[in-house]
Amino acid sequence: MKFEAATIKDIAIALGLSTSTVSRALRDSHEISIATKQLVLEYATRINYHPNPIALSLKEKRSRSIGVIVAEIANSFFSQAINGIESVAKDKGYNVMISQTHESFDKEVMTLQYLASRSIDGLLISVSSGTENLDHLKALHERGFPIVFFDRIVEEIQTHKVMVDNFRGAYDATLHLINKGYKHIAVIAGPENLSISRERIAGYREALAHTRVKPGKALIKYSRYAGLQLQEVEQAVSQLLKLRPRPDAIFTASDKLTTNCMRVLKSKGIRIPQDIALVGFSNSDLIELLHPPLTVVRQPAFEMGQIATQLLLQLIESKKPVKEFERKILNTNLIIQASS
Amino acid sequence: MKFEAATIKDIAIALGLSTSTVSRALRDSHEISIATKQLVLEYATRINYHPNPIALSLKEKRSRSIGVIVAEIANSFFSQAINGIESVAKDKGYNVMISQTHESFDKEVMTLQYLASRSIDGLLISVSSGTENLDHLKALHERGFPIVFFDRIVEEIQTHKVMVDNFRGAYDATLHLINKGYKHIAVIAGPENLSISRERIAGYREALAHTRVKPGKALIKYSRYAGLQLQEVEQAVSQLLKLRPRPDAIFTASDKLTTNCMRVLKSKGIRIPQDIALVGFSNSDLIELLHPPLTVVRQPAFEMGQIATQLLLQLIESKKPVKEFERKILNTNLIIQASS
DNA sequence: GTGTCATTCTAACACGTATGAAAAACGTCT
DNA sequence: AGACGTTTTTCATACGTGTTAGAATGACAC
What we know:
CATH architecture of the largest domain in chain A: 3-Layer(aba) Sandwich
Number of strands of chain A: 12
Number of domains of chain A: 3
Largest sheet of chain A: 6 strands, parallel
Strand content of chain A: 15-25%
CATH class of the largest domain in chain A: Alpha Beta
CATH superfamily of the largest domain in chain A: Response regulator
Structural class of chain A: alpha/beta
Number of helices of chain A: 12
Oligomer: homodimer
Shape of chain A: elongated
């Protein structure tokens, strides 16, 4: 199955010109007479000529496409972020190549190598929950390859970063629970190596620091796969339920954790919020239809995607090496509903 | 910001060979002595040589990437399908480029032109709800460009198609409502020009044909943007509520329609299923957490993505023009919960 | 008739890779 | 040594585009 497109050569032969003249005419060079320009342009549109992007890429050493690595497309936060990424990228004539890690470190390394070998011009990445070793990213970064982190950032690598105020989001959510009169507030977060987990737990801690009840270590649970696997959430919840005094509220620190925690509580016949209140990070657009409607910390995912992409394109198109890097911090939004 | 990779030329110069020798050595040609092969291979791995995929694409006239066009990534069905697409594509060394139409015909045409001009090797598409004119697809198809339709297919174009048994899915759902004793069952579907809308309404009609109550035209509502816009769903529901006798059940024929219909009913203070029962197509993984848990028709989205991709790659890699086309029809799954 | 300049076009090459054809290099046989 | 065959390497070219340098043409002035 082949599919032939018109080339500059076809035009040249058809009009009895050289390819370079045609090329120049199409690029509206001043060294071509208006008459020939018109001739070429007319014929080109007539046969629906489009310059071959691959040949262009080879010539210009840039592919005009960027890579995106996220944990899961089928996650409201990421799909909304990708929406933002795509809107900016397409607007600037860039293509988007998406890869998923499913929270696996190995997949992240493989997918990164794959994308890098496919000659993308830059990378947007929200690292997987399994990422502890950063060699693969550092190697790329040191070769001057443009990278922008969003959401789950990596502090050790100096480049643009876009995230929300995770500390504040977690602080607000926890404070909300405190104000509602909950005394024993537990937290389930992603793995400790993720920046967002640490920051959100810090916010949770800070909010509790003002109360008389200091949070015991037993109230803080980490989840290896950021809640992707129901089983690990079940285990964390079970452990929390065995504590005395039993927690009367849970704060979940990521999208999948929140919905899966709700699933587990329901399956155990625990009523929300009568038995245990639930507040969590989530970008699902179904939260108000849930039973009960969930109080959530919402992130401006679309906007994050847009900003991250703008920064990346800026990095790619910069002539001189960029030394000053931005660290954009957006605000979260606490949506209070019946679950707390 | 540039980023230089090693080329075959670098190796040739370093070893005092010609580029063609190096090229042949790397491809393990029999006409190269074992000694030089070893020499080249060793040096290549040492400097971490990877062939430039763009140069390869130019040479071989294939980019090893496929395009995907869907309405919305942030839609459970599509994100699951993309998951399936990505798994097969990556496995076969193909890249995936995703574009969204947001149910707009203009965006579909633009995005199609864009992808086609980016020299993708083939296209997977689930047409937008606004698609009435097929010229853009026909033009591409007639030039022999590989296309596979999934989910929202187009009958007029002869190529591989992957879908579910929409008729049966709708029939089962409607029959379920009938068996539960509902008498006045309304339906809200996507626009009439979409194959899935027509088939699902036909299934609904067939189920009702066995009952005494024939469905009046007033019970059948179409939604221009397949439920993407809340407003149009609100309008459809309002009209249904004015009918006498008032419908006691609604069947919604697509993902967004289902959740948005639920949203509208809730906002109007209508209880599900006491006042009106609700059953719909949906692939959301939160349905059992909703209030009430929704009875849904679920599609094997991941599998659809996989199969469609396999067929597309088969089409792309076929030497001779394919004349026999497959029409894969998968089964839906009715998940019965409290909403009906 | 010649020199200067501006205009308009072309030839040749580059990007990185692969390949058919030609040419070396080498060994073997007469 | 010459003819021949086999193995190994190089040359030339192509893919489609853009660009540097140079060539052809004509106009004008001297």
